[in-house]
Specification:
The complex is a heterodimer of chains A (307) and B (448). Chain A is mainly α. Chain A is built from 14 helices and two strands, in the order H-E-E-H-H-H-H-H-H-H-H-H-H-H-H-H. The longest helix of chain A is centred in the N-terminal third of the chain and has 51 residues, at 2-52. Chain B is of the alpha+beta class. In chain B, strands 3, 4, 7 and 13 form a four-stranded antiparallel beta sheet that branches. A three-stranded antiparallel beta sheet of chain B has the order 10-9-11. Classes of the chains: A mainly alpha (307), B alpha+beta (448).
């Protein structure tokens, strides 16, 4: 009897538990396709890249497991070290472009006549493809190109080096092109942030006798600090891991590897020479550095959103 | 339980079938498919030649149209390749075993390395010896007793000079510099008259390759010596291999090159000569003939490049088939591909090639009598000399990562010859560790 009574209870309990479990699993069922797609598109390639970093050779050929040898060899490779150094040098463009973008945005925010048109003009380079920009500047910056011809014409011939053909000038020249193109993005972001500020604070400062310089330095810039930080981190990521187009089109990494950056090093080894193991090794390293920056970026973004 | 086991077995069998089908689809086969006919099939041809022989793309388009008309069941899609992605694009294709039926690579190592990894099939398995025996330069693409690539044309590298500019500088217009010392002396005289002596471009690094190909052999006794350096048995920094960098650096230091050599590509640098902005250049047969049309054939002289060094190979000329066509292992229409390639070597097609490009076909059947232009005859005579294009014997990784940038270091003045040769040794070591399989094949191939 006890068994006869207990059985339906157990069944009832089991049935309701199963329903609860099913209910608990439902959301996972809904997100499963998205997770599967994400795993296929992102996780699988990342796992493969990490796996290849322990092999020599190329997929499709005989690949040999080499353990950490790729990491050791890459770190010992002067061309790789030089590429990393170039990435670090190019990071110097971030404060320059931030300061310039901020200056232009504050100028436009001052309400000069035609500021919208000026903003559009400054933004224009940003929407151009990096390859087109690189190609154009590769002609402009030739030893006997337009820029040097102009410098010679105005009597500044001594300031006309071989911008892309000398190891001394090639990285600063690439940096200059990056600043020229990315500046517009900063101007638009900062202008939008300045326009969104409540007018009362500025008005009150003016009534208190603040000069224009004090108003901008002590009132406006601190209010958009979160946006400035966001821009700095975003541009740092761009300069670190998205400058391949500029280098490829402007210099091809030359002269003599002088302008190689990490991305170019990856491309050259992986795609041009089939050394997929080496390319994967550097990709893993770059992923790590970019990951740290992305983490910082997300923190800064969250702080900017809550500010 | 039995049902479960049966289910698992069915699942495993299905997975096995899917897996084998996938592997079969992905992997290539070196055997012709059952439906492989010489006169039917859709072919994709990755083609490169325009840079060596202006007009080559037009010729190939015309030949494809002609062939399709004669063989209605064959369709050929032509995909011209760019110089800087030629090796990389095919590397990617060979990793996935998808892409062209016929591909183009530069002769020797760029052709043989895909062969060693099973990405191509021997063309000698598909084209009879009676035909391939007529092709010139087949030794450049032979490995394991098989021929892996087909030559189409000959790329000779003459030294050209502007006779009028020589006259203006008080030089004998019919006396080109025969040695490197002569070249330096000629540069000095031209510079004194405000003439840029040599017009070249090395932004892309290819001029550096040429300098290696022409002058890297100046102290070598044979190809085996270079191969021993690639195999790590000798150091490239040994002056036997790298002393020529000192001489190129001397040319630069003396202002023999145009001042923008580092900001112009090889092709851009060449344009200085026909625009009368430079008095001398190393170039191709095709360019020399084209420039003769621009400047007038009486204004241009052609000769073998000034000699450097006194090694047994220093006297060899510099002719190669440059690029070679080969059949990929994954092609489903290997016979059709081979039939088309062999057809390109027949009389009317060779005549059309010569008429379109002015570049000599790499075929013994092409009669000398068709070369009537005196300048062209002179170039053809030069091409007949004993020749070695040294760059062909470099593994692609060494060529790209050492040969190109090392030359740039010298022509841009940003590196010393010692630094350039140290880069070679370092890259050779990297190649050995990064491509152990290729290294082994190279070793076997080098041992004969």
């Amino acid at each position: 009897m006890g068994q006869r009574i207990a059985l339906p209870r157990t069944r009832a309990l089991t049935a309701s538990g199963a329903r609860r479990r099913r209910r608990a699993l439902w959301p996972y069922g809904f997100v499963a396709p998205a997770i599967a797609v994400l795993a296929l598109v992102f996780v699988y390639p990342i796992v493969q890249v990490v796996r290849y970093s322990f092999y020599a050779g190329s997929p499709g050929e005989a690949m040999t497991y080499v353990g950490l040898a790729n990491y050791r060899n890459v770190v010992a490779d002067p061309v790789f070290r030089h590429s990393v150094l170039n990435n670090v040098k190019l990071l110097a463009t971030v404060p320059v472009m931030t300061a310039l973008a901020l200056a232009v945005a504050l100028l436009l925010n001052g309400g000069i006549r035609g500021w919208r048109q000026f903003r559009a003009i400054v933004f224009l380079p940003y929407i151009l493809p990096a390859a087109a920009v690189g190609l154009t500047f590769s002609y402009l910056l030739q030893r006997n190109g337009v820029i040097n011809a102009f410098l010679h014409d105005v009597g500044l011939g001594s300031l006309a080096p071989d911008w892309l053909g000398s190891t001394r000038w090639v990285v600063p020249s690439i940096g200059g092109v990056i600043i020229w193109q990315q500046l517009g993005f900063g101007v638009v972001v900062f202008t939008a942030a300045l326009l969104a500020l409540p007018g009362e604070v500025s008005e009150a400062a003016r009534l208190d006798g603040a000069t224009s310089w004090q108003l901008q330095r002590l009132i406006l810039i601190p209010q958009i600090r979160g946006i400035v930080e966001f821009f700095v981190v975003l541009e740092a990521i761009t300069v670190l891991s998205q400058v391949f187009n500029y280098v490829y089109v402007l210099t091809g990494g030359g002269p003599g590897n002088a302008s190689s950056v990490m991305e170019f090093y990856i491309w050259k080894n992986g795609f041009s020479l089939g050394s997929v193991g080496v390319a994967s090794t550097v990709a893993v390293m770059l992923l790590g550095v970019a990951g740290v920056l992305i983490f910082v970026y997300m923190r800064v973004r969250a702080r900017a959103a809550s500010a | 339980m039995k049902a479960r086991t049966r289910g698992a077995l069915v699942l495993a069998a299905a997975a096995g079938l899917v897996l084998s089908a996938t592997v079969a689809a992905c992997g290539g086969s070196t055997r012709p498919a059952a439906n492989d006919s010489a006169s039917a099939g859709d072919l994709t041809y990755w083609y490169w030649a325009e840079s060596d022989a202006p007009g080559a793309n037009k010729w190939m388009q015309a030949m494809i149209a002609r062939y399709e008309q004669q063989h209605p069941k064959v369709h050929i899609k032509l995909v011209p390749q760019s110089t800087d992605t030629l090796i990389g694009a095919f590397k990617t294709a060979s990793q996935t075993k998808k892409g062209p039926d016929i591909a183009t690579q530069w002769a020797t190592l760029p052709v043989l390395t895909p062969a060693w990894t099973g990405a191509s099939v021997p063309i000698s398995d598909y084209v009879p010896k009676s035909e391939t025996a007529n092709w010139i330069g087949t030794q450049e693409n032979t490995s394991d007793g098989k021929l892996w690539g087909m030559p189409i044309y000959l790329l000779g590298v003459p030294f050209v000079w502007n006779k009028q500019m020589f006259k203006d500088a008080g030089l004998d217009p019919d006396q080109p510099p025969a040695t490197f010392d002569d070249l330096l002396a000629t540069c000095t005289k031209l510079k004194a008259k405000g003439i840029t002596p040599i017009g070249m471009g090395n932004k892309d690094g290819y001029m550096g390759n040429w300098m290696f190909a022409i002058y890297g052999k100046s102290s070598l006794a044979n190809i085996g010596e270079l191969q021993s350096a690639m195999l790590g048995k000798a150091k490239f920094s040994d002056p036997k291999f790298s002393a020529f960098y000192t001489d190129i650096a001397k040319l630069r230091a003396q202002g023999c090159f145009n001042d923008d050599i580092s900001s112009l590509d090889l092709n851009q640098g060449w344009q200085l000569f026909p625009r009368k902005k430079a008095a001398m250049a190393w170039t191709t047969d095709g360019n020399a003939l084209a420039w003769a049309k621009t400047l007038g054939s009486e204004s241009i002289g052609v000769a073998a490049p000034p000699k450097l060094g006194d090694g047994p190979m220093a006297d060899t000329y510099d002719t190669t088939q440059s690029s070679s066509a080969f059949i990929t292992s994954w092609s489903k229409h290997k016979r059709a591909a081979a039939a088309f390639l062999a057809w390109l070597h027949q009389g009317p097609q060779l005549d059309a090639w010569y008429a379109q490009t002015g570049v000599f076909p790499a075929d013994k059947r092409f009669p000398d009598s068709k070369i009537t232009d005196p300048l062209a005859r002179k170039l053809f005579e030069l091409d007949k000399h004993e020749s070695v294009w040294l760059e062909n014997y470099l593994p692609p990784q060494v060529d790209q990562n050492a040969d190109l940038p090392a030359g740039q270091l010298i022509t841009s003045g940003s590196g010393t010859p010692a630094k350039a040769s140290a880069l070679w040794d370092q890259v050779i070591q990297q190649w050995k560790t990064q491509h152990p399989d290729e290294f082994q094949h190279y070793q076997q191939w080098a041992s004969g």
